[in-house]
């Protein structure tokens, strides 16, 4: 300070004075509004508009932390054994710990493989059969499904309302004395809406930040010609319902269970392939343990007389061993290590 | 610049003036109670849960433990054709909760009304809009957790006509050919509804759970758990029994 002349000081003060409204604005806005953009990375331009934006408008860090606490809390399950995180684990791309069927309450096994819950805000419908039409409503499923967490909504709400800590937190962050399913669904949705995967090597490649190896490049080309009609970029699903030729008799009727249309039996929503190398085993019933088996299926294993088989798959792909390796090399670029180590989620 | 400000302030003054005028003219409002009464069979004896009945058409023995359904989107039409729409318009009629049988509507503008329109069920928008409150909260057990949508009518109970001994009809469907959302209009005849700010008016409605099975039977299947053709015919048969009785001004 001693090195500054009085005139310079004057100048600085007058500049500060001119800038005062700006600082005031900065101060006020930083106090009153917590900006979600300070909290999460920028979504790449090649991503579509999300279907859900409410979590952005409603975002506060406090709500996010409350959602996180609930996500990890087995209090939500009947026997206090299971939380959302038991089945949707960060280290496994928010899918389950590499088990075919997840264990829910009392160790009961579910009937479908647990999918990743990254990028939900871009999904048009939820579950392998797309039976759930809104992200906020999805939580009702695991909370009341006998195989998963096994409580009825009133049971969950009673427990929360008898927990002074949660009562205080909901009062602070949602202004309610009595916790209802409305706030519970909102806060869980706000939390899982932040689970976004778009910082994989593939994404860096798309943004011109890294190069693909020759093998990855070849795999990418094969992917575009053989897989992208269903697993379309950048979410790696077009969210349509397809039968990819697993069975001739359907143990699980899939989409048909929802629509009861004869043409929907055996169809499942095309799953996203982001973080796919971590989310094994694969398919709605977790029948394949690794990507080799999956590619073997597409190559020579398609059940051709399967009812409602997708026309794209009528002919086996007949991939060579080298092509399979190239495809796997490409699929490995979809692993998002930034998400897996993102401190906001643990 | 100054011009703009003076124009702006004039506009503002006019705006404020207008709204305060409006306030002065604000209409008086009154209250309306819509009471639902439930009856059984041809002789229309009073219906209650946990009571043994014999169905008048199919002769099945039935005992209902649950009977719940949604009434929504109540609209009143004045003689001059103007409409008033109830803003909190979702009600869950639950026969195990006597208080739920009387829908209390407030802030109804004073005036003479010639008809009432109401919906049995929950409109499609609320079936696809995520978390809801009040009568539409999932805590009421009226929302399917695996195939989204409201259970708009839930009837459960026991019957020897069922092989398991019990029956459960969970009826819903808000789109396509199995849509069961039904809108009805009551035209008040000679006695119009006259909402006043002195005392609450009453509309009496009647519904008959026996109609649920008037073209069907537990023996045909004791469970319906999702939208479909049977869900639709069961629901519409019950809905056809919901009628206007009389009103008290």
Roughly what is the average pLDDT of chain A, rounded to an integer?
Answer: 86
Assembly form of the protein = heterodimer
**Could you state the order of secondary-structure elements of chain A as H and E?**
HHHHHHHHHHHEHEHHH
The largest β sheet of chain B comes out as: 10 strands, mixed
Describe this structure in words.
The complex is a heterodimer of chains A (346) and B (249). The two termini of chain A are 44 Å apart. Chain A contains 15 helices and two strands. Residues 1-10 and 21-32 of chain A have low confidence and may be disordered. Chain A is globular, with a radius of gyration of 24 Å. Chain A has three domains: 1-39; 54-196, Cytochrome c-like domain (Cytochrome Bc1 Complex, Chain D, domain 2); 201-340, Cytochrome Bc1 Complex, Chain D, domain 2, CATH 1.10.760.10. Chain A is mostly helical and 346 residues long. In chain A, helix 3 (61-71) crosses helix 9 and helix 11 packs across helix 14. Chain A has a two-stranded antiparallel ribbon. The longest helix of chain A is centred in the first third of the chain and has 27 residues, at 6-32. Chain B is α+β, with helices and mostly antiparallel strands and 249 residues long. Chain B has one domain (30-248). In chain B, 16% of the residues lie in helices and 40% in strands. Chain B contains three helices and 15 strands. Chain B has helices at residues 2-25, 124-127, 229-239, and strands at residues 29-40, 45-46, 52-54, 61-78, 83-85, 90-94, 102-109, 111-120, 151-158, 166-172, 182-187, 193-195, 201-207, 223-224, 243-248. In chain B, the strands form two sheets. In chain B, strands 3, 4, 5, 6, 8, 9, 10, 11, 12 and 14 form a ten-stranded mixed sheet that branches. In chain B, strands 1, 2, 7, 13 and 15 form a five-stranded mixed sheet that branches. In chain B, a hairpin with a 7-residue loop joins strand 9 (151-158) and strand 10. The longest helix of chain B has 24 residues, at 2-25. The termini of chain B are far apart. The interface between A and B is medium-sized, with 25 and 19 residues.
């Amino acid at each position: 300070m001693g090195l500054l002349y009085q005139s310079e000081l004057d100048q600085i003060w007058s500049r500060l004075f001119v800038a005062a409204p700006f600082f005031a604005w900065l101060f006020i806005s930083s106090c009153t509004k917590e900006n979600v953009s300070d909290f999460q990375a920028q979504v790449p331009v090649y991503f579509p508009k999300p279907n859900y934006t409410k979590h952005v408008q409603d975002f506060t860090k406090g709500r996010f932390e409350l959602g996180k606490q609930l996500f990890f809390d087995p209090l939500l399950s009947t026997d206090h054994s299971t939380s959302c995180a038991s089945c949707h684990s960060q280290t496994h791309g928010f899918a389950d710990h590499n088990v075919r069927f997840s264990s829910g309450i009392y160790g009961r096994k579910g009937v479908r493989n647990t999918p990743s819950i990254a990028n939900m805000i871009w999904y048009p419908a939820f579950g392998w059969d797309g039976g759930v039409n809104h992200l906020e409503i999805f939580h009702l499923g695991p909370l009341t499904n006998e195989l998963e967490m096994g409580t009825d909504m009133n049971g969950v709400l009673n427990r929360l309302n008898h927990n002074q800590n949660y009562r205080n937190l909901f009062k602070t962050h949602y202004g309610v004395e009595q916790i209802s399913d409305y706030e519970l669904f909102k806060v869980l949705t706000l939390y899982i809406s932040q689970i976004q995967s778009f910082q994989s090597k593939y994404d860096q490649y798309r943004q011109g930040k890294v190069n693909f190896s020759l093998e990855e490049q070849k795999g990418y080309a094969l992917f575009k010609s053989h897989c992208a009609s269903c697993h379309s970029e950048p979410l790696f699903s077009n969210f349509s319902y397809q039968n990819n030729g697993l069975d001739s008799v359907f143990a699980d009727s899939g989409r048909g269970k929802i629509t009861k249309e004869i043409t929907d039996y055996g169809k499942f929503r095309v799953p996203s392939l982001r973080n796919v190398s971590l989310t094994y085993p694969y398919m709605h019933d977790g029948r394949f343990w690794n990507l080799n088996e999956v590619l073997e299926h597409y190559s020579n294993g398609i059940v051709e007389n399967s009812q409602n088989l997708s026309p794209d798959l009528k002919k086996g792909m007949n991939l060579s061993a080298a092509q399979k390796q190239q495809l796997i090399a490409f699929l490995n670029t979809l692993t998002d290590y930034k998400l897996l180590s993102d401190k906001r989620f643990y | 610049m100054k011009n703009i400000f003076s124009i702006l302030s004039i506009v503002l003054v006019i705006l404020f003036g207008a709204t305060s005028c409006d306030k002065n003219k604000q209409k008086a409002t009154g209250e309306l109670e819509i009471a639902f009464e439930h009856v059984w069979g041809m002789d229309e004896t009073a219906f209650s849960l946990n009571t043994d009945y014999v169905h008048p058409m199919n002769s099945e023995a039935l005992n209902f433990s649950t009977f719940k359904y949604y009434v929504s989107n109540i609209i009143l039409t004045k003689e001059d054709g103007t409409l008033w729409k109830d803003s909190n318009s979702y009600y869950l009629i639950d026969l195990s909760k006597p208080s739920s049988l009387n829908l209390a509507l407030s802030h109804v503008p004073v005036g003479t009304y010639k008809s009432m329109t109401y919906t049995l069920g929950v409109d499609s928008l609320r079936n696809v809009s995520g978390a809801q409150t009040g009568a539409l909260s999932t805590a009421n057990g009226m929302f399917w957790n695996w195939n989204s949508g409201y259970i708009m009518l839930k009837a459960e109970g026991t019957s020897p006509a069922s092989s398991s001994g019990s029956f459960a009809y969970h009826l819903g469907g808000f789109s396509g050919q199995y849509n069961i959302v039904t809108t009805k209009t009551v035209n008040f005849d000679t006695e119009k509804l006259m909402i006043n700010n002195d005392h609450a008016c009453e509309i009496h409605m009647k519904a008959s759970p026996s109609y649920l099975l008037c073209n069907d039977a537990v023996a045909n299947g004791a469970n319906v758990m999702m939208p479909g053709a049977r869900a639709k015919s069961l629901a519409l048969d019950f809905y056809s029994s919901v009628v206007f009785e009389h009103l008290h001004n």
